[in-house]
Amino acid sequence: MSNVLEIRGLTKHYPVGGAFARSLLHAADDVSLSIAPGETVGLVGESGSGKSTVGRCILRLEEPTSGEILLNGESVVAATSSRLRVMRANMQMVFQDPYDSLNPRIKVGELVAEPLWLSGIMSRKEADRKVAEVFDLVHLPTDTPLRYAHQLSGGQQQRVGIARALATNPDLVVLDEPTSALDVSVQAQIINLLEEIRQRLSPAYLFISHDLSVVSNLSDRVAVMYLGQIVEVGPTDTIFELPGHPYTRGLISAAPVEHPAQQKERLTLLGEPTSPVDPKPGCRLASRCPFVEPKCREGELPLQEITPGHSVRCRRYVEEHVDGVWDPEPTR
Amino acid sequence: MSDSVPGTTPLITIRGLQTHFFTQRGVAKVLDGLNFEIASGRVTGLVGESGSGKSVTAFSIMRLMRAPGRIVAGKIEFQGVNLLQLTEREMAKVRGEKISMIFQQPRASLNPVFTVKDTLLRVLRIHKGLSARKAQRAALEVLARVGLPDPAVVLNRYPHQLSGGMCQRVMIALAISCGSKLLLADEPTTALDVTVQFQIIELLKELEDETGLTQLLITHDLGLVAELCSEVAVMYAGEIVEQAGVHALFDQPSHPYTRGLLQSRPKPGARGELQSIPGRVPDLLAPPSGCRFHPRCPLAQSRCAEESPVPEIVGEGHWVRCHFWRDLV
């Protein structure tokens, strides 16, 4: 079966600095990723890693600098604006801040129905029926469509956001930090809801988050981004049990313990993410990596497949690992 | 007292604290008779969701409540003095020299038109009466102490020239520069990146180990509590519903809300359904009768809606405010 989403060499650069000081912010560099029908792929990274840029390019909310994005085999990048409108019914997005992404002046039922009949997908009557159906799917009370966004709690607002995304039966839903603005107990409700929807309608999800634990709960595969590049991608279990890239290891290690008695082996990355503006050649983690060697700072580093489906962008790991295991001594 | 921590003396003792919010829609009694102690030399966690009153507690201790919030009654005792009876001038001295606070948005807490040097030297000269030269030396020392790699460079920077993690280190430097006895840390790592978050936690740990700095860590994240705290109080809708040593709280959570919070955390690398707490945090303009958690509680019975539970002892230094906590164990 062909992939729902196929991203090949996606690159997005933003010019920064004045007209004469031309610098480029590398938001995404040569990102390739595919998602199979019904699959959930987690995209993890810190702020500035480019994970949201990738999500926004997929829906062409941003124009990619170069690269190809295929939705069910059809190019999103080359689509005309009228064709894009039709294609967008098949790819939807849920945003981080549920309140900011809902128009405060329109009742939330209308908000979900309007695009359905405006785009001619269905009649007004069918659209209203669809609203009742998707609101039921996300477990909102039956009177919710008549309410305004500010009358709902954060969790309910996010349910509306999810209902809106599902109304067109999309094959792909891009979830951009859908639980980050919510309280812990509500976050669990939303994660469970996304899982339930997946079992009933099996859309493919691209789950974008800074929180590896939240992502791992839903994802079949995880891709880790750092400063515009995917540094590791693989099945969720592999990423947690046998992470290859020092950055992935750092992320896992930085997550708080689950119990005060737990002793956790810690790998500390030095300093903070460096600037994505005009990155130096070589590995982008070099200045923070405890295992850095001079060769890490040279040339381009490809993402290399270690086992089928598990790829790592780290020269030392690729050269030195034995059956995926690599336990280097810190070099500084 | 039921809520004192065994083997310690309290640095702060809060009794019957009432902080109310006077809004157009009515009076929200966010804190309505809070009793709470912060044990000296320990890191105490104050855990709750948004709207639980955890930040209001800290702002009340600092007496930084702004309208529509106001402290209406109660007592906050610190080193034998009731902070609520101090003049504004005396309180300003306490804030500079005895109790400090750091916030979620470190850059927003620093004045953007002043360099780190302006801010830090001013604090050192006013509160410690140091000469310009001595203040500069002390400033460099304290910046190095909080792990800033190049103190002399950082000193001349403006907040916007520093990363979020560096700003938080500068805030911590300000907090400890005058020898504060108590640090109130309000979600100090929430706005930071994961790898940087961990570095700040390590720094706060060091400060406890090396200088015995008493800290109140306000957070929604039980993982941070497990990392850093020795005591924990769980707050729900303006009330502390459970308090315990950190191991007891994780091993034997006795309030249904505490248990719900622990179970709703996603575990790294684990899949499957999460336990969640149904419903939402109540509106404190019209809090539920009886136990404030009863509309969301799996154990609730009719008594819970009628009668507000009083603290009951679970074990040494461990108490809970629930009628039916024994059914949970």
Quick tags:
heterodimer, A: 332 residues, alpha/beta, Rossmann fold, 2 domains, eight-stranded mixed beta sheet, four-stranded antiparallel beta sheet, 10 helices, 12 strands, B: 329 residues, 13 helices
* CATH class placement of the largest domain in chain A: Alpha Beta
The CATH architecture term of the largest domain in chain A is 3-Layer(aba) Sandwich
Structural class of chain B: alpha/beta
Number of spatially distinct domains of chain A: 2
The CATH superfamily label of one domain in chain B reads P-loop containing nucleotide triphosphate hydrolases
* Integer average pLDDT of chain B: 92
The major β-sheet of chain A equals: 8 strands, mixed
Read across the widest sheet of chain B, the strand sequence of neighbours is 6-7-8-3-9-10-12-11
Biggest beta sheet attributes of chain B: 8 strands, mixed
- CATH fold description of one domain in chain B: Rossmann fold
Secondary-structure-derived class of chain A? alpha/beta
Output the CATH homologous superfamily of the largest domain in chain A: P-loop containing nucleotide triphosphate hydrolases
State the end-to-end CA separation of chain B: 24 Å
Task: Identify low-pLDDT runs of chain B.
Answer: none
Distance between the termini of chain A: 48 Å
